[in-house]
Design goal:
Elements: E1 9-14, E2 19-27, E3 30-37, E4 44-53, E5 58-67
Antiparallel strand pairs: 1-4, 2-3, 4-5
Length: about 70
């Protein structure tokens, strides 16, 4: 039996210091979130890994956040 998309839990598995991802919204399997960057975040490409779980199984995916000076 497959888990309904809205029943999945999303957490940050790994992110560089100064970069946070929060306020996850899972709508029909499409996950969105808010990325906040502090002044101490490294410039350039930063890998962020998310973990998605249905309570029994989990999987991770990595995406890149590009930080530039303002």
């Amino acid at each position: 039996l497959e888990t309904e998309p809205g029943d999945l839990t999303v957490t940050v598995a790994d992110a560089p210091a100064g970069l946070t991802v929060s306020k996850f919204i899972n709508t029909n399997g499409a996950i969105t979130g808010t990325v906040a960057v502090a002044c101490n975040a490294p410039l350039g490409a930063n890998a962020v890994t998310l973990r998605v779980s249905d309570g029994a199984l989990s999987s991770t995916a990595t995406f890149t956040v590009n930080v530039t000076a303002n």
